[in-house]
Amino acid sequence: FKESQISLKKGDRVRLTVTSREGTHGLYIPRLGVSVAPVSPGQKKTVEFVVKESGPLQYFCNVPCGRGHSGMRGQLSIA
Prior knowledge:
Elements: E1 7-8, E2 13-19, E3 25-29, E4 34-39, E5 44-50, E6 57-60, E7 73-78
Parallel strand pairs: 1-7
Antiparallel strand pairs: 2-5, 3-4, 6-7
């Protein structure tokens, strides 16, 4: 994952586009019930959701994708 700082507010409506440069991947934000998979190289998938939680929210790749899979995670900062 190429993680950038993502800061949101509770109640925000979000449109998130997930892309893959190489390998098949996905994105899962458990506490928001957001799941996007599979995303193949060069493909884009978009999901929309409303932020219903506050505090830090973990996200990660939900498609087993090889040796670096366990490190494909990040955090959303929710105010």
